[in-house]
Amino acid sequence: MAELKFRRFTLNQRIEHIIFFTSFILLAYTGFPLKFPDVWWSKWMIASVGGFENRTLIHHFSGLVMIGVCAYHVVYHMVLEKVRPDILFSPKDIKDFTQQIRYFLRLTDEPPRFGRYTWKQKFEYFGAAVGAVIMGFTGILMWQPFEAMKYFPIGFVQIANLFHTWEAVLASLAIFIGHFYDEHFGKFLNLSWLTGNISEEEMRHEHPEEYEAVMGDEVINKIETGNPVRNNSSAGTVMLFGFAKLVFTMVFLAICIWMLWISYHVLVEAVNTYIL
């Protein structure tokens, strides 16, 4: 029997995602040598892109590309398209979070019943949006600091510098730990970012509420791909992956709380140093 495939991402969304993560990787690669200039790998990274001037050029160009794709995303999906209400946070997300933790701890046999977006996917989406705004605005101020000081006090520009660097650290940890584990390591080999489709097995397991709604309305995208994939994992393997997901979820949340705490202290220090 042919396996059902469900459309997860449109071609437009896949292109946006590729442009966004490519510019993000380039920004991280060319930005971290400035954040940690004294370590050995910083000099190697700068040399690998052809020197400091090339590093600066790549960093600025990648920043403009990210600002452009974010602006396009907002205009296209928030203005031209009808906004999906299920992307917004709701009280159900709190219920899903607590249910997921209880499920990981084996306190219940019932996993959370997610719709199209899980609580963590919403967190990553809006976190990326807030991060892009902060990084874009502060990056422009840092690009032309003397021009910026014509319109903002020097203390404001100094604070922008601190927030830009620490937001970069937070975003990198969130992407390379949280997002990569959930969407790639935990679903290896996940090619939905290229194909736009997910399997019926993944749809039923990861998004049961959406799966039932779609099947009930018979709104599905059928693609002939052979036999359905079945989960033949042993109980031990399932428990191991469940524990790993719990650990990575806790690490991800701990990093976010830690970075918020650092951001608070950086802000207080910057205000005391440059403004008061």
- The largest beta-sheet arranges its strands as 2-1-3
What shape does the CA trace take? Answer: globular
CATH homologous superfamily (4th level) name: Transmembrane di-heme cytochromes, Chain C
What value does the Rg take, in angstroms?
Answer: 22 Å
Count the beta strands.
3
- Stretches with pLDDT under 50, minimum 5 residues: 219-233
**How many helical stretches?**
11
Instruction: Tell me the fraction of residues in β-strands, as a range.
Output: under 5%
Q: In angstroms, what separates the terminal alpha carbons? A: 71 Å
Q: What keyword list fits this structure?
A:
single chain; 276 residues; mainly alpha; Fumarate Reductase Cytochrome B subunit; three-stranded antiparallel β-sheet; globular
Give a topology summary:
Layout: E1 4-7, H1 11-35, H2 40-48, H3 52-80, H4 91-104, H5 119-143, H6 145-148, H7 154-185, H8 192-195, E2 197-199, H9 200-206, H10 208-217, E3 221-222, H11 235-275
Antiparallel strand pairs: 1-2, 1-3
Helix pairs in contact: 1-2, 1-3, 1-7, 3-5, 5-7, 7-11, 9-10
Characterization of this structure:
This protein is mostly helical. The chain has a single domain, classed as Fumarate Reductase Cytochrome B subunit, CATH 1.20.950. The chain contains eleven helices and three strands. It has a three-stranded antiparallel beta sheet with strand order 2-1-3. Helix 7 packs antiparallel against helix 11. Mean pLDDT is 80; it is low at 219-233.
